[in-house]
Specification:
12 helices; 16% strand
């Protein structure tokens, strides 16, 4: 499993390409000039949006490869075409929760024997730091760790890209739950609102991921997406919006106890989401540890001009 030689184009397979982050990652890879293969699963059936998305990737230059998770040999054949495999399968409870399906990818990569790097579906909180997380949201982290352990036990070279709140879910709504749009009059502030949180535009996460694929500096490493200008407290995020609109919102501080008070009466996806919000905004799980320059995406790849959250919020004006 030698490294990719510099100057050679990287051949990469994306699994979960039609998903929320997957489609951005495919486009970023194509722009970067990677030879991009996209896994097309026969189970797609009548899902017209996914079919049209796959065809749009093909038009942009991606190559479609048919393989199924229920056919191991088809997965092995797909792996044999590429140097790098990137999985973007969903790990959130309110969408589909498919983390452990990646164990089938690990088996196929192991048998194929030619893959020089695997990037499993990560892109959020670092699961190796979330052993204490609240159930049922903890399941996401436990399963991601199970996949990591399988990768490392098989001796497959890897890169784990972690560490930021997706802007579309956390920025436009000023991190309010159950909406994706900015509040008009009132805003809930988590605790005192002074815990540092990391926000990132999903396209930037895709661009950073694209840069890591054949970078020797990121081999068998965790890369943290923590762009310095986007490390903000909840209060700072709200103030950016207030400055842009010239309108001050009425703020209500929610204590940790109140925030979690009804958790057991909620549906499982809501419980998981609430737990994740708690770890981010009350515990500060994205910023409670030091990250060196050699492991932080924006310092590794200063050529990616990442979107700052004031620019992001201007879309909503």
């Amino acid at each position: 499993m030698g490294e990719i030689k510099s100057g050679e184009k990287t051949r990469v397979l994306v699994v979960g390409a039609t998903g929320y982050l997957g489609k951005r990652i495919v486009r970023a890879f194509l722009v970067e000039g990677h030879v991009t293969y996209v896994l097309q699963r026969p189970e797609i059936g009548l899902d017209i949006e996914k079919v049209q998305l796959l065809l749009s990737f093909k038009k942009l230059g991606a190559r479609l490869v048919e393989a199924s998770f229920s056919d191991h040999q088809s997965l092995v054949s797909a792996m044999k075409l590429v140097d790098v495999v990137v999985s973007t399968m969903s790990g959130v409870h309110f969408r589909s929760h498919n983390i452990l399906v990646q164990l089938k990818l690990v088996e196929a990569i192991k048998e194929a024997g030619n893959v020089k790097r695997f990037l499993p579906s990560e892109f959020g909180m670092d699961p190796s730091r979330m052993g204490h997380a609240l159930p049922p949201g903890r399941e996401t982290f436990d399963q991601k760790m199970e996949v990591r352990q399988a990768i490392e036990a098989a001796g497959i070279p890897y890169t784990y890209v972690v560490g930021a709140c997706f802007a579309a879910y956390f920025t436009g709504n000023l991190s309010q739950m159950e909406t994706l749009l900015p509040p008009k009059k009132e805003v809930n502030i988590y605790g005192d609102g002074n815990v540092k949180v990391v926000f990132a535009d999903e396209d930037d996460i895709a661009n950073y991921t694209s840069k890591t694929l054949n970078d020797p500096r990121t081999l068998n490493k965790t890369v943290y997406v923590r762009p310095p200008n986007n490390v903000l407290t909840h209060i700072e995020l709200v103030q950016i919006w207030e400055n842009l609109t010239g309108n001050e919102l009425e703020k209500t501080n929610i204590t940790a106890k109140d925030f979690l008070s009804n958790i057991e009466h909620m549906e499982i996806p809501q419980q998981a989401g609430l737990g994740h919000f708690y770890h981010i905004f009350y515990e500060g799980c994205l910023t409670d540890h030091e990250v060196g320059e050699d492991e932080e995406a924006s310092s590794l790849y200063p050529d990616v001009k990442y979107k700052r959250m004031d620019d992001y919020l201007r879309m909503f004006l």
